[in-house]
Design goal:
By secondary structure, the chain is an alpha/beta fold. It is 39% helix and 13% strand. It is globular.
């Protein structure tokens, strides 16, 4: 109880759509992220306002090349191994395996690519932690079926899951079904490939899509346990405590409601049924979910083995209109500025103790192992005259969060591992830019796609290497 447990899985986390590039190589199909331009034109598409199902020549799409992990994975994995990674969280691009999403047969070249990546990880004794769906629905499924609003995607996702489970059953033990599944409510095109027409009931569509994803997740858990008996299959939440601004009971209730908006996904995935507060919300908002006869049994009988979550910042809420005016950023979640805490360059609240509180909150609620699968500081890193990045600010941020995670473990919270977000600089999910850097490894690439893609270790590289070497004893 005095420190990190033996066998703790230290590592880092990346996603196919933010690292691989090679967006149409070796038979890969277009995914939703391949239609996200950069900067100010990106956000409307993320919300479901899509004007074209093909990339436009007039726009720059950062996912098309990203940091070229597709061709450089051996170099990158060697660097992760040098840091001592025990695990690497990564995702499979659905459209590499089934380019259109509904193909009769999988794409062998796509399957072979991930075979090669997993073999490379094994060579370095790094355990893969694989996300099945990390914000990249095949575009054909959006065009032909309306994406996750359509029940058909449940069957197609199950086919995809069974295909990769069967292929990699001897190479991958740890799995996640959907990345930050609650993001569907906030960025519906990113989270679920949803495109809205004028006058549509967006709330109804989002919750129907959520139900389909929850059933698909349960069926993936079922398939995984059948195909890989010792598999650990988890869900994943974009987490972060919501604090009431004051002790006013209205503020406390509002904070609870904000948390429940996200928790309801994990309540279903972890407990196997819709909670009462969600049923009340549906009733009061006129949301009528279409369910098939066996859905309740599918959800109940196929709950997850562990809870993965991302933690970047906490949030604050108030029912006082005057207080509500003092807003700051926090991922895509709105928040009132916390007067007790500092913020990052992007306005995200820096709250290390919030990680401990969030971990305790989740463990108290679900009593299942947790896995911190994303945490990190996005910052503008500027190399000095010698080409070095002295990122003491990142080290300080991570030190503080790891100390609080250690405290959570001493509180009795069962945490399997920690994969910091973006161990190498990658394309920002929110803006599509490269200047918002998280990595221990600097990648020479700018917001417009210029640069050599050369990899350079930052100061934080050696710091994290020592953290892993000492199993968190030297932070």
């Amino acid at each position: 109880m005095s420190g990190f447990p033996k066998g703790f899985l230290w590592g880092g986390a990346i996603a196919a759509n933010q690292t691989e590039g090679a967006y149409l190589e070796d038979g890969k199909g277009l995914t939703t992220v391949d239609l996200l331009p950069t900067r100010d034109k990106r956000f409307p598409v993320m919300l479901g306002k899509l004007s074209s199902y093909e990339p436009l020549e007039s726009e720059f799409y950062p996912s098309h090349e990203a940091i070229d992990f597709y061709h450089r994975y051996k170099e990158d994995i060697a660097l992760f191994a040098e840091m001592g990674f025990k695990t690497l969280r990564l995702s499979i691009s659905w459209a590499r395996i089934f380019p259109n999403g509904d193909d009769a047969e999988p794409n062998e070249a796509g399957l072979q690519f991930y075979d090669d990546v997993f073999d490379e990880l094994k060579k370095h004794n790094i355990e893969p932690l694989v996300t099945l769906a990390h914000f990249d629905v095949p575009v054909n499924l959006v065009k032909e079926y309306g994406s996750w609003r359509n029940r058909k995607l449940v069957d197609l996702f199950e086919t995809y899951a069974r295909t990769v489970f069967t292929r990699y059953k001897d190479k991958v033990k740890y799995w996640l079904t959907f990345n930050e599944i609650n993001m569907l409510l906030h960025l519906p095109f990113v989270g679920a490939g949803l495109v809205f027409g004028e006058g549509e009931n967006e709330q109804q569509i989002k919750y129907q899509a959520a139900h389909h994803q929850l059933v698909a997740s349960a069926l993936a858990v079922k398939a995984g346990h059948e195909i890989i008996p010792d598999a650990m299959i988890g869900c994943m939440l974009a987490a972060g405590m919501t604090y009431p601004y004051s002790s006013n009971p209205d503020d406390v209730m509002d904070a609870m409601d904000k948390d429940r908006e996200s928790f309801f996904f994990i309540d279903v995935q972890s407990r196997g049924e819709y909670p009462g507060y969600a049923k009340r919300f549906f009733q009061e908002n006129g949301i009528e979910l279409e369910m098939e006869e066996n859905d309740a049994n599918i959800l109940k009988e196929n709950t997850v083995d562990y809870i993965g979550f991302s933690y970047y910042s906490s949030r604050v809420t108030s029912t006082d209109p005057k207080v509500q005016e003092n807003q700051t950023s926090g991922n895509v979640f709105g928040s009132i500025k916390n007067p007790y805490l500092e913020t990052s360059e992007w306005g995200w609240t820096i709250d290390p103790k919030g990680l401990r509180i969030t971990a305790n909150q989740l463990y108290d609620r679900y009593q299942k192992p947790l896995f911190v699968v994303e945490n990190g500081l996005g910052a503008v890193d500027v190399p000095n005259e010698n080409g070095e990045v002295i990122d003491d600010y990142r080290i300080q941020y991570l030190q503080a969060h790891l100390k609080e995670m250690k405290e959570a473990i001493q509180d009795g919270v069962d945490i399997l591992g920690y994969t910091s977000w973006g161990p190498i600089d990658i394309v920002s999910a929110s803006t599509g830019e490269m200047k918002k850097r998280y990595g221990y490894i600097y990648v020479d690439r700018d917001n417009d796609g210029n640069g050599t893609l050369k990899r350079t270790k930052k100061k934080s590289f050696d710091w994290y290497k020592q953290v892993i070497k000492t199993n968190g004893e030297e932070l």
